Amino acid sequence: MKKSRYSIFSLAGNAVSAHRHWDVAWRSPPPAPEYDVVIVGGGGHGLATAYYLAREYDVGRIAVLEKGWIGGGNTGRNTTIVRSNYLWDEAAHLYEKSLQLWEGLSQELNYNVMFSQRGVLNLGHTLQDMRDIVRRSSANRLNGIDSEVLSPADIKALVPAINISAEARYPVLGASFQPRGGVARHDAVAWGFARAADRHGVDIIENCEVTGIRREGDRVTGADTSRGFIRAAKVAVVAAGHSSVIADMAGLRMPLESHPLQALVSEPLKPVLDTVVMSNAVHGYVSQSDKGELVIGAGIDAYNGYGQRGSFSIIEGNVAAIVELFPVFSRVRMLRQWGGIVDVCPDACPIISKTPVKGLYFNCGWGTGGFKATPGSGWVFAHTVANDAPHPLNAPFALERFTSGALIDEHGAAGVAH
């Protein structure tokens, strides 16, 4: 009882004192006039890059520049699904490396990122869907990635609430299932990487918008920001939907399109869904958060733009699709909706690459699949920046593939926002 009373009074005392005696998770230093490496973008990928750079490579002083607050961009505006069941070898190997890092990330960062390996189902509704599922599942297993092909009865046993009636408009004929896939807490991922990077000496500078990239000939010299010019021998850009805007500042044109991507959550429910269910045919997916909310999403808005609201028709169609799969959800009320900005490459795969400007690197074009790649993306990008050469895992994702024609078409595996 004494311990309980102490805990209650301690909690109340911290609340009254506005937590002023708590240690800060990371420092808020003013920007120095010069760094060895500047990372533009304080989302999950940028912070992961900073962490692995500081932990594994001797590159000198590192700063992360974030125009808003840490985790305030796409990192906090996604739906947190993690999987690695991509079709082509290049993408499968990259995402599988990321999934392996996810599996030890809480221990690595000493911060609970709430990674829950509850499994991911990809439904098939036509004979062609099932042929594609069998093909992708076989390719996954050849690459050492866990994947199973399930029957409708298997799916019903795993997800009792789903409708597998043959009378449905899109009857469920089967699914692929990756048991090691799941979800994580997006905010915790950003906070964990930020705290770990800070403890390795990285300066995390919030409210510092990059307004220009300076060059001397074919070499980068630093970045103009809302808090002054910062000189750097290397500038690594990880700015999600705004990557093409920053590339333009350096005189580069990126093969990217930026689109709004919407999602929504329902009111909290008692536990009803303990895996992730995705469907390309009805174009929607759903999981249930630890708070009980149904987390629902679909594809991008078709138009280009930088708005974070999106159009109502996408949400309307998305909800209709989920109700087709789960009629029991038809009376559940929507709690809130949001949008992010995704940058999409022509082949639905990212760019993790050097550029023609010496010392300037870009990590972008993740489309709807960036969150799941967070640790793997940072790990290979740190190698690229430190060594001025790609790691074998990200060598296929170089900018030059758009002139050589060596594209990696992952539209099938990345067709639904996730």
Draw up the topology in text:
Elements: H1 2-16, E1 34-40, H2 44-56, E2 62-65, E3 81-82, H3 89-103, H4 105-109, E4 120-124, H5 127-142, E5 148-150, H6 152-158, E6 174-178, E7 182-183, H7 186-199, E8 203-205, E9 210-216, E10 219-225, E11 228-237, H8 243-249, E12 257-266, E13 276-279, E14 284-288, E15 294-300, H9 312-325, E16 334-344, E17 351-354, E18 360-364, H10 374-387, H11 401-404
Parallel strand pairs: 1-2, 1-11, 2-8, 4-13, 11-18
Antiparallel strand pairs: 3-7, 4-6, 5-6, 9-10, 10-11, 12-15, 12-16, 13-14, 14-15, 17-18
Helix pairs in contact: 2-7, 2-10, 3-10
Strand content: 15-25%
Q: What is the β-strand count? A: 18
CATH T-level fold name of the domain at 117-182 and 258-344: D-Amino Acid Oxidase, Chain A, domain 2
Largest sheet: 8 strands, mixed
Identify the quaternary structure here. Answer: single chain
The SSE string, one letter per element, is: HEHEEHHEHEHEEHEEEEHEEEEHEEEHH
Q: How many helical stretches?
A: 11
Any guess at the CATH architecture of the domain at 117-182 and 258-344?
A: 2-Layer Sandwich
Radius of gyration: 22 Å
- Structural class by helix and strand composition: alpha/beta
Q: What is the global morphology?
A: globular
> What is the CATH C level class of the domain at 117-182 and 258-344, in words?
Alpha Beta
Q: Would you identify the regions where 5 or more consecutive residues have pLDDT less than 50?
A: none
Which percent range fits the helix content?
25-40%
At the fourth CATH level, what is the homologous superfamily of the domain at 117-182 and 258-344? Answer: D-Amino Acid Oxidase, subunit A, domain 2
In whole angstroms, the N-to-C terminal distance is: 46 Å
Nearest-integer average pLDDT: 92
